[in-house]
Amino acid sequence: MTFVVTDDCIRCKYTDCVEVCPVDCFYEGENMLVIHPDECIDCGVCEPECPAEAIKPESEKLLQWVEVNREYAQIWPNITRKKDAPEDAKDFDGKKGKFEQYFSANPGSGD
Q1: Which CATH number is 54's domain given?
Q2: pLDDT tens for residues 88-102?
Q3: Is residue 8 within 8 Å of residue 95, measured between CB atoms?
Q4: Is 6 exposed, middle or buried (0-12, 13-18, 19+ CB in 10 A)?
Q5: Of the residues 3, 14, 81, 107, which has the maximum number of CB atoms within 10 A of its CB?
Q6: 105 in any annotated domain
């Protein structure tokens, strides 16, 4: 089992989770983070750190997110340090359907 970042992260992009990760398995896109499922050691310390509750343990209903996380972790830069959230993050926290409306495949800046 691994942990995955879901669309609850899109446009919120809180980075509290990256500082507690002991294996630095987070990768940064333009408007969300992902976890590399092959690097995650399933410790779970990141899950309670996410204010948007976007980090979930892998399950059958989240298999699409395992694949999204895997795909973009291979091309986005690694992030290990907390950054400021976008100014409008709270406006997007809890919104539904964010992947279809707001997802960007563009990479973030990383560390």
Answers
A1: 3.30.70.20
A2: 999 999 999 999 999
A3: no
A4: buried
A5: 3
A6: no
As given in the structure block, the two tokens for residue 54 are: 């976007």
Q: Is residue 9 part of a domain?
A: yes
CB proximity list for 80: less than 8 A, separation 6 or greater: 18, 19, 21, 24, 26, 111
- Neighbour-count burial for 35-53, b at 16+ CB within 10 Å, e otherwise: bbbeebeeeeebeebbebe
Domain count for the chain:
1
pTM beyond 0.85: the answer is yes
Mean pLDDT per block of 10 residues along the chain (111 residues) reads: 94 96 98 96 96 94 93 98 95 94 96 89
